[in-house]
Specification:
Helix content is 58%, strand content 14%. The protein is of the alpha/beta class and 219 residues long. Strands 2-1-3-4-5-6 form a six-stranded parallel beta sheet, sandwiched between helices.
């Protein structure tokens, strides 16, 4: 018998999920939690084979629950249930100990497959997420190599752009001509494959191409 704890804050969703699981004779729902704190206490006490954990819960979200459970070194296999396909959430979930990441619109057969796969100590992602994760790693790898190709001067210009300085102000601070700043800006945007300043700033911050501590202290 495979014991399961279900952590989901929406009562109807949780009840439906438990009813679905109970249809399988090999599965037994041992407990239900309606928030993250309750989930941690219940999983720690019952130590089920499987914990199905909603990513968006009050008190502690799913990733915080995973992080807390790591402290107890339980054998419980943890699977995240989510409406969100953002690669950052998937990575954080796996990094914090989840063995599976399942979208809530998945079919019931997929949930059972995820449980079986994760019990075999394999990682399970909803099929539609595989492409998302792959594209995310490709993008990060491209940005990493791009950041390494930026010159020291381009890095300085990028830092000042993120701080909100205009081309003329950057020119004065760096002691170069405004036209040179324009050239550096164009080169940086070309390397990062962005088309406007908003995209440039977003990419620079998202992929750690600027010193955010310095950024925060200078604004």
């Amino acid at each position: 018998m495979i014991s399961i704890v279900v952590a989901e804050d929406h009562n109807i969703v949780r009840e439906g999920l438990c009813a679905l699981l109970q249809k399988y004779s090999a599965l037994e729902v041992r407990g239900e939690a309606a928030d993250g704190m309750e989930a941690v206490r219940l999983i720690k006490r019952l130590q089920p084979d499987i914990a199905l954990i909603d990513i968006a819960m009050p008190k502690l979200n799913g990733i915080q629950v995973l992080s807390k459970l790591k402290e107890f070194k339980l054998k419980t296999v943890q699977i995240i249930l989510s409406m969100y396909a953002e690669p950052e959430l998937i990575r954080e979930s796996l990094k914090n100990g989840a063995k599976g990441y399942l979208l809530k619109n998945s079919l019931s057969q997929e949930l059972i497959l995820a449980i079986r796969t994760c019990l075999e100590k394999k990682i399970y992602l909803s099929p539609s997420l595989s492409q998302v994760v792959a594209e995310s790693y490709i993008m990060e790898d491209r940005i990493k190599h791009t950041s390494e190709s930026l010159t020291i001067r381009e890095c300085e210009v990028l830092q000042l752009i993120v701080k909100g300085y205009r081309n003329r102000e950057i020119a004065v601070k760096l002691g170069i001509a405004p036209k040179t700043v324009e050239n550096h800006r164009a080169n940086i945007m070309g390397k990062l494959k962005v088309h406007n300043t908003a995209q440039l700033i977003t990419s620079a911050i998202k992929y750690g191409l600027v010193d955010l501590y310095d950024y925060g202290s200078m604004v």
